[in-house]
Write a structure and sequence with these properties.
alpha/beta, Maf protein, about 40% helix, globular
Length: about 160
């Protein structure tokens, strides 16, 4: 699914890093399924917990004010992973796949927040999607398809 994107990043000599929560590294894993991915993928972090989002640079104040399930948190994730790795693009993904999070009660149980930070232009591209599939694997694929679509329009 991501062959075109990886080739485009390679041809443009651009790099990418990801900070994923609900997708559990599925985006980074999908990127590494493509030949040549080592040229463009610098780093990936799976930050399920608030604690590790904060350790990776996400502001505790942002989480406290907007919740961990928000576009503001996704933006912090994309920006900080790009900054940490000096990647051209940082991708932040947070949200829920229909499961109540007892530690973070705020937020819709079916919304995923996606942010892509373009370091070269200091610009964020943000979107949301509804995790409407009945299994986690299918919802992860929905997110990967959305991120792929977004990045192909940006790169």
């Amino acid at each position: 699914m991501l062959e075109k994107l990886v080739k485009k990043l390679i041809n443009n000599k651009k790099t990418i890093s990801t900070m994923e929560s609900c997708t559990g590294g599925a985006l980074a894993s999908s990127i590494t399924n493509v030949e040549g991915a080592s040229e463009i993928l610098k780093f990936s972090a799976i930050t399920y917990s608030n604690q590790f989002k904060i350790k990776m640079g996400v502001s505790k104040d942002i989480i406290d004010k907007y919740s961990v399930y928000s576009i503001e948190t996704a933006k912090e994730m994309s920006y900080n992973i790009s900054k940490f790795t000096n990647s051209n693009y940082g991708v932040g993904i947070t949200g829920k796949f229909g499961k109540i999070d007892k530690e973070n009660l705020a937020g819709d149980d079916y919304t995923v927040f996606i942010s892509i930070y373009d370091k070269d232009n200091n610009k964020f591209y943000n979107d949301t999607l509804k995790a409407v599939k009945h299994c986690r694997k299918e919802n992860k694929l929905l997110v990967i398809e959305k991120v792929n679509e977004m990045l192909l329009n940006i790169v």
